[in-house]
Design brief:
Layout lengths: L4 H9 E3 L7 E4 L3 E5 H13 L9 E5 L10 H16 L2 E3 L6 H8 L6 E4 L13 E4 L2 H8 L4 E4 L2 E8 L8 H12 L7 E6 L8 H10 L7 E3 L4 H9 L19 E6 L6 E3 L7 E3 H4 L6 E4 L7 H11 L9 E4 L4 H10 L1 H7 L3 E2 L19 E4 L15 E4 L2 H10 L8 H5 L19 E2 L4 H4 L23 E8 L6 H4 L12 H4 L15 H10 L3 E6 L11 H8 L2 E6 L4 H9 L3 E5 L4 H4 L5 E4 L2 H7 L2 E6 L4 E6 L4 H9 L2 H10 L1
Parallel strand pairs: 3-4, 3-6, 4-5, 6-7, 9-10, 9-12, 10-11, 15-16, 15-18, 16-17, 18-19, 21-22, 22-23, 23-24
Antiparallel strand pairs: 1-2, 2-8, 5-20, 13-14, 21-25, 24-27, 25-26, 26-27
Bound molecules: alpha-methylisocitric acid and iron/sulfur cluster.
Iron/sulfur cluster binds next to loops.
């Protein structure tokens, strides 16, 4: 049988189950990645599991999200992460060293390996031919302890690339095109695998832009082969030994085939406020803009920033435009500083931000009311910039820099005509600047035991869920529509600093749905919890899309939410719900969604019985006086976790037993 690359890597790591699409499987994880916004909780849970020292080939803890440091919370987290990493045998990438995905690609990624990361953009590693999957922190904590990672064996979507990108057209436009074709919905349980002659025209950083934003498709991961481009990148990073060639068999059986001719692509944008609201730049050009940011784990590589600096050399951005650049890593920033191109960016009026997530996760640089902001990021969910009603367009660095100069959305291909500038095509450097001094290597086990872990007072150990009742009596706390993202459920921005304090952070669950003068979601939920009534959330399609943040399950759990009833639920969020003993239920008949109203009482008479054995559950709307069916799409392991009252309780039992 002709195999896809995805299945070859899965086969090498298979621990449990059969490799057939839709089957539950368990795989061995070689590497893990955590970042500070999810990692603090992940390490607290890791400690609660009583694991001690990591058992992976490599685990790295990054600090890149929470770096604004207003108040002591962020720094408390940094010190905790630094000391717990040393104690647990984990590498620690200090704040300022760069965004986890960019640094991991540069310094640690290995073709053919598996990587599990507590961040939804972990698939960035797919640009290097590794099977890199995003998951909740608790799953990553379990994998750090050597635990198997469980997933649904994926279908594989083959994307055949032919041709070659034209001048001023970017790999960002490839993924925007794919988002136009596949949208953000309906791709759960798939892996996107790239192949074809166009692949060899793309460098690893270009491939990584594509696999990174592939997360927005809602797929398990995205994957490129490992070839001479991969070798060139690893060699330039001084890591030639990590290279191995990898590809699919010549004629693998893809579940779906999509063809993209790179030569025919044009610059595109994801318009407000969804990454799949795609338009060609030619359809939106001329719109005045007030802000441009080049950065994030999608587009802040050395080559992206060199291109921008070459365009801006000796020029300035338009006076009405605030322009910021956040280099993806310290390596990128240092190289630009050494070759003088940082001076060109500064000279052009760029505000140089730290190497970190920054504005991408609402840590500053929020746009003014009503203005257009252009960003090279991967997500433009409403309000994510920190401004309600924001107008955020996601574009390539080429479109961003052209627009910053012109003061309006500009097709970068017009720069040649407008200012007589040819496309500055940047080659992959032969050698990157290698300085790992901000990556701390963990001490050997005998010394690690002597490290004292710093626990600031703002760090609170999260509580474990209570067991589920056999008869669930609950009230609909909220009925929300389609495409509810984890940003809706658990906002980041200025609340991000409360990540390591669940009781405090929980106050902001569904913050965007709270109305002035009325009790908040959290207040209503806690009042119910005190009365012994469960909270239920009702959602539409693609509930929980976006990030891997397990706080979108952990905090509702703390508030007493025990079930989510939706038309469909996204992969990572569903796993997080199960890990925190919240039952994910899909409507058997989606029209039942219309019959339920907020505040109504729901009863699930035989919940535990159904979780044990069945694929359906009977739900009674006691207020509306009708009954309907819910679907339980659960693997045997999901059932075990729910019956144990969540993954932490299961792990604790296993460790005792
Ligand atoms: C994001 O891009 O939304 C984040 C912030 O990186 C999240 C993780 C988090 O919420 O901490 C993600 O993508 O998983
Ligand atoms: Fe950070 Fe943004 Fe990337 Fe998330 S998407 S890891 S917030 S840069």
């Amino acid at each position: 049988m002709q195999k896809t690359l995805t299945y070859k890597i899965l086969e090498n790591h298979l621990v449990e189950g059969q490799l057939a699409p839709g089957e539950p499987i368990g795989i061995r994880i070689d590497q893990t990645l955590t970042q500070d916004a999810t990692g603090t909780t992940a390490f607290l849970l890791f400690e609660s599991m009583g694991i001690g020292r990591v058992k992976t080939d490599l685990s790295v803890s990054y600090v890149d999200h929470n770096m604004s440091q207003f108040g002591p919370e962020n720094h408390n987290d940094h010190l905790y992460l630094q000391t717990i990493a040393a104690r647990s045998g984990v590498y620690h990438s200090r704040p300022g060293n760069g965004i986890c995905h960019q640094v991991h690609l540069e310094r640690f990624g290995r073709p053919g390996a598996t990587l599990l990361g507590s961040d939804s953009h972990t698939p960035t590693g797919g640009g290097l031919g590794m099977l890199a999957i995003g998951a909740g922190g608790l799953d990553v904590a379990a994998a750090m302890g050597g635990g198997t990672f469980y997933l649904t064996c994926p279908k594989v979507i083959g994307v055949e690339l032919t041709g070659r990108l034209g001048d001023w057209v970017s790999s960002k436009d490839v993924i925007l095109k794919l988002l136009e074709i596949l949208s953000t919905k309906g791709n759960v349980g798939c892996v996107v695998e790239y192949f074809g002659p166009g692949v060899e025209t793309l460098t690893v950083p270009q491939r990584a832009t594509i696999t990174n934003m592939g997360a927005e498709l809602g797929v398990t991961t995205s994957l490129f082969p490992s070839d001479s481009m991969t070798r060139a990148f690893l060699q330039a990073q001084g890591r030639a030994d990590a290279y191995q060639p990898l590809s699919a068999d010549p004629e693998p059986d893809y579940d779906r085939l999509i063809k993209i001719n790179l030569s025919q692509l044009e610059p595109m944008a994801a318009c407000p406020s969804s990454p799949d609201n795609i338009q060609p730049i030619s359809a939106i050009e001329g719109r005045p803009i007030a802000q441009v940011v080049i950065g994030s784990c999608t587009n802040s590589s050395f080559m992206d920033l060199m291109m921008a600096a070459e365009v801006l050399k000796g020029r300035t951005v338009e006076a009405g435009v605030e322009f910021a650049v956040a280099p993806g890593s310290r390596q990128v920033l240092q190289m630009l500083a050494e070759n003088g191109m940082l001076a060109e960016l500064i000279g052009a009026g760029a505000r140089i931000l730290e190497s970190g997530c920054g504005p991408c996760i609402g840590q500053g640089f929020s746009p003014a009311d009503g203005v257009v902001t252009l960003r090279t990021f991967n997500r433009n969910f409403a309000g994510r910039t920190g401004t309600q009603g924001d107008q955020c367009y996601l574009v390539s660095p080429e479109t961003a820099v052209a627009s910053a100069m012109m003061g309006e959305i500009t097709d970068p291909r017009k720069l040649t005509e407008l200012i007589g500038l040819g496309y500055p095509k940047i080659k992959l450097p032969r050698e990157f600047l290698i300085d790992d001094s901000m990556i701390e290597v963990p001490p050997p086990p005998q010394e690690a035991g002597r490290v004292s872990v710093h626990r600031g007072p703002t760090i609170v150990v999260p509580e474990s869920p209570r067991p589920l009742p056999n008869e669930l009596n609950g009230q609909v706390l909220l009925k929300c529509g389609d495409k509810i993202t984890t940003d809706h459920i658990m906002p980041a921005g200025s609340f991000l600093k409360y990540r390591s304090n669940v009781p405090l952070y929980s106050k902001y669950v569904f913050h965007c749905f709270n109305e002035d003068g009325k009790p908040t979601f959290a207040e209503r939920a806690l009042a119910l919890k005190q009365k012994g009534v469960a909270g239920v959330v009702v959602g539409g399609e693609s509930y929980g899309q976006g990030s891997s943040r397990e706080h979108a399950a952990l905090c509702p759990m703390y508030l007493g939410v025990r079930a989510v009833l939706a038309k469909s639920i996204e992969r990572i969020h569903k796993a997080n719900l199960i890990n925190f003993a919240i039952v994910p239920i899909e409507f058997a008949d989606p029209t039942d969604y219309d019959r339920i109203n907020a505040d109504e009482m729901l009863q699930i008479p035989d919940l535990l019985e159904a979780i044990k054995l069945l694929d359906e559950v009977r739900i009674v709307d006691t207020t509306g006086g009708f009954e309907f069916k819910g679907v339980l799409k659960l693997s045997p392991r999901d059932r075990t976790i729910l019956l144990a009252g969540g993954l932490l309780n299961l792990a604790k039992k296993a460790n005792k037993g």
